[in-house]
TrEMBL record:
Site (Electron transfer via tryptophanyl radical): 308, 363, 386
Signal peptide (UniProt feature, chain positions): none
A Pfam short name: FAD_binding_7
PANTHER family listed in its UniProt record: CRYPTOCHROME, CRYPTOCHROME CIRCADIAN CLOCK 5 ISOFORM X1
Catalytic activity: cyclobutadipyrimidine (in DNA) = 2 pyrimidine residues (in DNA)
Role of this protein: Involved in repair of UV radiation-induced DNA damage. Catalyzes the light-dependent monomerization (300-600 nm) of cyclobutyl pyrimidine dimers (in cis-syn configuration), which are formed between adjacent bases on the same DNA strand upon exposure to ultraviolet radiation.
Binding positions (FAD): 225, 237-241, 274, 376-378
Name the UniProt record assigns to this protein: Deoxyribodipyrimidine photo-lyase
GO biological process: photoreactive repair; response to light stimulus
SUPFAM superfamilies in the cross-refs: Cryptochrome/photolyase FAD-binding domain (SSF48173), Cryptochrome/photolyase, N-terminal domain (SSF52425)
EC number, UniProt record: 4.1.99.3
Presence of keyword Mitochondrion: no
Residue ranges constituting the Photolyase/cryptochrome alpha/beta domain according to the UniProt record: 3-132
Length: 479
């Protein structure tokens, strides 16, 4: 067996706490990192344009960071197995290591690759690191997967704490064979028409930016997380979701940073609330593992017969996507999403609920739009989020609990700062009307420079009517 090791990187785009890299370094011999772009191999959950944009920038940061540690990054396109075989021939590698993914199509592909390479005599191994717990490892007393978050997370918390993060390898003294790869641009991850200015102004991809973001969050904002996390106008959450999705940092690095903050005096409840959000991420993968078609099929199969509203020409869907529904909190959220590739969690729930309940359009349409536009798009978390919003998931909000987007705005964005930021046309409306401009007297609208129907749309639907229609549609499928 050759002494070189290939490390097949996927969504573990970092040097620290990377078990596959660490084991490759321990094996001795040169280590060559490989990124293979083969979206056709994971057709069930293909990433969208914003996700590709982030991936490009994350790989761009990773190449030089790996090079500094003496590890070349080789970029290739093409089917994984054939491309790995070609690289094995070119480098004489005797081992291929990677960290695991958990989406069903990726799992099937990885299994095939592992079996084939092992049959050919390669030392082929995969490692857990994307989650705190393997999705199949946490089981209820009946030895079945959990369907509710609270007992699931309680069971997780009973497990021993995760191991301490691994240091980055330093292989500068190991000579490596020269291997041909593609330029990053050849992977075609960036958009052809430049719609990404807002994303560029918002995100800095890469491991060192992610670690800096984590440290700053733990030092400055974690202590107030429980109070601020639902206020979309505040920078109250960590903003770590794309970094966690692409593995620029690992959940156990986040875990240990929170533990250090707790030691340093950050209140227990803030730490626990934040860790439980990591728990939701774990739960999403747990659900996807037991429901591989979570992104398409409702967990509650009564919803297979739900009477969705016909939407000729997708007119309402397009208005929702473009942030032109006439409901300010919904529209502000959709503008934030389009401009930054991210949306605050509270607003994801409100925009999702409005689509599925007031507009009564299928949740899968919203899931697809988020898939295309979120930089943190994650098959498991997005599918779980949409099924939660639609009321058809495991441990979901019941369908009959319908968010009123005006009340949500008044409660979580009381001065309308979030709405004003993303909808400048409404900036001069008094707080009292900011979440429901159609209720403002004509003189108030005039003073604020708002003409409904031209500066800002009239509501697509009467909220009370939408709610009543949603409830009676639900009656039709209630068992
Ligand atoms: C309809 C809908 C779709 C969603 N789609 C995605 C998605 O595609 N990708 C994604 O990462 N999250 C998704 N979420 C969950 C959540 O909105 C984001 O994780 C969160 O807003 C990311 O911001 P943050 O990093 O500042 O979160 P923080 O509040 O700082 O939380 C820390 C981390 O915990 C995890 N997390 C937090 N909340 C959740 C949650 N409800 N479910 C799963 N993980 C969570 C994320 O990894 C996050 O980075 C979705 C939620 C809804 C309601």
């Amino acid at each position: 067996m050759g002494d070189a090791t290939l490390v097949w990187l996927r969504r573990d785009l970092r040097l620290t706490d990377n078990p596959a890299l660490d084991q490759a370094a321990r094996r001795g011999g040169p280590v060559i990192a490989v990124y293979l772009h083969a979206p056709e191999e994971t057709p069930q959950y293909p990433p969208g344009a914003a996700s590709h944009w982030y991936l490009h920038h994350s790989l761009k940061a990773l190449g030089p960071a790996l090079a500094q540690a003496g590890i070349p990054l080789v970029l290739r396109r093409g089917p994984a197995l054939a491309t790995l075989r070609a690289l094995i021939r070119a480098t004489g590698a005797g081992a291929v290591y990677w960290n695991r993914l958990y989406e069903p199509d990726a799992v099937a592909r990885d299994r095939t690759v592992k079996q084939a390479l092992r049959t050919e005599g390669l030392d082929c191994r995969s490692f857990p690191t994307a989650l705190l717990h393997e999705p199949w490892a946490v089981r209820n007393q009946a030895d079945r997967p959990y369907r509710a978050f609270t007992p699931f997370w309680r069971a997780c918390r009973r497990q021993p704490p995760p191991a301490a993060p691994l240091p980055a390898p330093d292989l500068r003294d190991r000579p490596v064979p020269a291997v041909e790869g593609l330029d990053l641009a050849a992977l075609g991850l960036l958009p052809r028409t430049p719609w990404d200015t807002g994303l560029r102004n918002t995100w800095q991809a890469g491991e060192s930016a992610a670690l800096a973001r984590l440290e700053a969050f733990a030092a400055d904002r974690l202590a107030r997380y429980a109070q601020d996390r639902d206020r979309p106008a505040e920078p109250g959450t960590s903003g770590l979701s794309p970094a966690l999705h692409f593995g620029e940092l690992s959940p156990r690095q986040v875990w240990w940073q929170v533990m250090a903050a707790r030691e340093a005096g950050v209140p227990e409840d803030a730490c626990e609330t934040f860790l439980s959000e990591l728990g939701w991420r774990e739960f999403a993968h747990h659900l996807l593992w037991s429901h591989p078609d979570l992104g398409d099929a409702p967990v509650d199969d009564r919803f297979g017969a739900f009477p969705w509203r016909p939407d000729p020409g997708d007119g309402w869907l397009h208005a929702w996507q473009a942030g032109r529904t006439g409901i300010p909190l919904v529209d502000a959220g959709m503008h934030e999403l389009w401009q930054t590739g991210w949306m605050h969690n509270r607003v994801r729930m409100v925009t999702g609920s409005f689509l599925v309940k007031h507009l009564r359009l299928p949740w899968q349409r919203g899931e697809r739009w988020f898939r295309d536009t979120l930089v943190d798009w994650d098959a498991a978390s997005n599918a779980m989020g949409w099924q939660w919003v639609a009321g058809c998931g495991a441990d979901a909000a019941p369908y009959f609990r319908i968010f009123n987007p005006v009340r949500q705005g008044e409660r979580f964005d009381p001065q309308g700062r979030y709405v004003r930021r993303w909808l400048p046309a409404l900036a001069n409306l008094p707080d009292k009307y900011i979440h429901a401009p159609w209720t403002a007297p004509e003189a108030v609208l005039r003073r604020a420079g708002v003409t409904l129907g031209s500066d800002y749309p009239c509501p697509l639907i009467d909220l009370r009517l939408g709610r009543e229609q949603a409830l009676s549609a639900f009656q039709a499928i209630k068992g």
